[in-house]
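Checklist before submission:
- one chain only
- standard amino acids only
- sequence pasted in full

Submission:
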Amino acid sequence: MLHLWRVPSAAVPAAVARMALDRRHLRASGAAFWKLLGTGDGRTFTPRDADPHHWAVLTTWDDDAGATAFERSPAVRAWDRLAAERLRVEMVPVASRGRWSGREPFGDPVPRRADASADTSGPGVASITRARIRLGKGRSFWGAVPPVSTDLHAVPGLRLAVGIGEAPVGLQGTFSLWDDASSLRDFAHGRAAHRDVVERTARERWYAEELFARFAVRSLEGTHRGVAL
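Returned file contents:
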């Protein structure tokens, strides 16, 4: 599950503080995995992308009861008080490859033919990519990002793309929301800019750790930048 909040300018200092304060709440929440995330526009994956008005919490749960209870938790209530807007995305992993902080947070689902119907039965599909950049590889990696980002925002079927990260530099990721699985596949496998970066990733060994995951979206609640997705 991903919560994405927009806070007004006056609440930005309090939002920054929540990045530290909510760690204890999330440790006690019962979540199987959680991350407090800053966001950005993902155009370059450098600090100049940072968006101090949007913040996210990513959680995974062993059961629906835990996820439901989290909506009443101190962390969510505190963010809701600060925020002018909230988007909540409930997702089920369909495919996941790689690790995040040494873990497989979405399990190890292997895509099956039956997943095609799962991808289209809900209000869309989502993708999370995340990487830890190797020391000394940042300049090469950042130079490769802009063409892919520009191409991403031109792909039909994309509803939302947000840069996410645990730190301004070195821990980079993207959350994206799509109309359907075919739109996501078109970007991942059919666009030359993305294919080039995938090939360079293996050749230049940019990442010390990486993860790619696809999800069927079960529900979408709220808005982002005033738009119901």
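Reviewer check: Residues 12-27 form the longest helix (16 residues).
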